[in-house]
Amino acid sequence: xxxxxxxxxxxAGKTTFIxxxxxxxxxxxxxxxxxxxxxxxxxxxxSQTSDVDILEFAEGCICCSMKDSFxxxxxxxxxxxxxxxxxxxPTGIGKLSGILATAQKYEYERISLLRPVTxxxxxxxxxxxxxxxxxxxxxxxxSSRIVFSKGENESPDxxxxxxxxxRRLNPRAEIVCRHYTQQDDAWWNGLLEEERAAxxxxxxxxxxxAGRASKIHECTFAKARLRNPAELIxxxxxxxxxxxxxxxxxxxxxxxxxxxxxxxxxxSRYGVTGAEGYAQETQCVFIGRTVKRRALFDRLNAGTxxxxxx
Length: 310
Fold this sequence. Notes:
By secondary structure, the protein is α/β, with parallel strands linked by helices. Helices cover 33% and strands 25% of the residues. The radius of gyration is 19 Å and the shape is globular. The strands form 2 sheets. Strands 1, 2, 3, 4, 5, 6, 7 and 8 form an 8-stranded parallel β-sheet that branches. The protein is built from 10 helices and 15 strands. Helix 1 (14-25) packs parallel to helix 2. It has helices at residues 14-25, 41-49, 67-80, 96-104, 125-131, 133-141, 156-169, 185-191, 229-241, 293-300; strands at 2-8, 29-34, 53-57, 85-89, 112-113, 117-120, 145-148, 174-176, 217-221, 225-226, 247-256, 259-266, 269-274, 283-288, 307-309. It has 2 domains: 2-209, Rossmann fold; 217-309, CobW-like, C-terminal domain (Hypothetical Protein Yjia, Chain: A,domain 2). Strand 2, helix 2 (41-49) and strand 3 form a beta-alpha-beta unit.
């Protein structure tokens, strides 16, 4: 079983990248999803577009609080499902060094680590490096491939400037500046074949001392309902403007009037689509340095027993 870890900060686009990986390679893979919060939207999104086995970890991070469960799951998956490939999507606030160190302990003739990938959104690079250095730098410095996402509207000069910054942080990594959908099939297949270099037997944990430790708050809602889709649009506009806190990621499914909608907000962008294929139940999560919990309660018409903040 070959293990490919797809890392990246909150809202970087890891799930979308994994969907493209499955589509382009056509390989038999098992996906391990480590959601942050009491939602499972990413696993539902993957299952809609591909017939793959998906294992979910919630209520914790596989780099730290759930690393023992992660380790035992690797052995269980290898012995029971025995897939050729296991694709691991950690939570966006997971440290890549911790995940790789845990997986490395269980490498033997049937389990091996592939070169890890980190997804980076260029427009958020400077913000997250400043606000969450311990997590963000760890994900970049310990990756073998840095792949840009959501950079289609950025100028080539900006992309190259950020690539140069990343190259200084991790001179060994391959950096893909153009959108990954433009990569050829050989590159995609290489993601599932190229094992980590022998010299990467230990992982860079220097980012742990790179400034203050990140403090992340989460507010999840199991009860929420809006009167119409326009109210959701106004809410998301306020989220990306910072009116409801310093929120890095918001996503969910909820009822707006007579229809169910799915929303996603990150990197000063948001999207709203129909919720076909998703469970028709409220699942909303807001994650960031600060979250205005009471304001969200009021806006979403939710009672205090319908949310949990950690």
